[in-house]
Amino acid sequence: MSKVRIKICGLTRNQDVQVAVAEGADALGFVLYAPSPRAVTAEQAALLIKDSPAFVTTVALFVNESAEEIVRALTVCSFDLLQFHGDETPQFCRQFNRPYMKAIRVRSAEDIHRAVQQYPDAKALLLDAYVENLPGGTGQAFDWRLIPELSIPWVLAGGLNANNVADAVNQVQPFAVDVSGGVEASKGIKDRQKIKDFISEVRNVER
Ligand SMILES: O=C(O)c1ccccc1N[C@@H]1O[C@H](COP(=O)(O)O)[C@@H](O)[C@H]1O
């Protein structure tokens, strides 16, 4: 099995960024969506990633944000990748000349097939649980059996934690896994041991 990338999302504190990097996370996610309990501003994210090493991808998560605000955020903080978690169209996602990932809240295999057609230039699709009226970060998993064979890289998200991530990776073999709530002590506050356990579960499956 090839290496499964690991993204730790919803980082709000410097010490949590350092732990994620030290434990071997491949990507760090920052929620630029004010209603989220994990929200940070672009200015805060810039401070948080100031000392993050090269070869660790920094990701900005937006939910139906205006183009003007995204452009502003990108002038404040040089994120490597954009994650769109709302109803953004492909035209909207691609206008920033930055690699992007589109999150899909999965209810059926058809949702995923449609997204593959719709977002051909996305670097990856992120598959998350569908929970009515909530864009993401719900801590809910979805039925992984809905995931078809896909021709583009995809990221498994939604309700992952150290207890289920090995099963998930074994069952569906994603390009990457993304976790937020499953490695938290409370919303927005990460737990060192949970991050460590999560990453080691993924790495153990790969052996
Ligand atoms: O984390 C949030 O608060 C959030 C808010 C709005 C959209 C997405 C959000 N988080 C992303 O949701 C998935 C799953 O999170 P969880 O592991 O189930 O808590 C993940 O990609 C988060 O980055």
From TrEMBL:
Record's keyword terms, sorted: Amino-acid biosynthesis, Aromatic amino acid biosynthesis, Isomerase, Tryptophan biosynthesis
Molecular-function annotations in GO: phosphoribosylanthranilate isomerase activity
Pathway(s): Amino-acid biosynthesis; L-tryptophan biosynthesis; L-tryptophan from chorismate: step 3/5
One Pfam family here: PRAI
The protein's Enzyme Commission number: 5.3.1.24
Known catalytic reactions: N-(5-phospho-beta-D-ribosyl)anthranilate = 1-(2-carboxyphenylamino)-1-deoxy-D-ribulose 5-phosphate
Residues in N-(5'phosphoribosyl) anthranilate isomerase (PRAI) domain copies: 6-200
Highest taxon in the source lineage: Bacteria
A biological process from GO: L-tryptophan biosynthetic process
The keyword RNA-binding is annotated on this UniProt entry: no
Similarity comment text for this entry: Belongs to the TrpF family.
NCBIfam families, per the entry: PRK01222.1-4 (NF002298), PRK01222.1-6 (NF002299)
Name the UniProt record assigns to this protein: N-(5'-phosphoribosyl)anthranilate isomerase
Provenance organism: Oleispira antarctica RB-8
Name of the gene this protein is made from: trpF
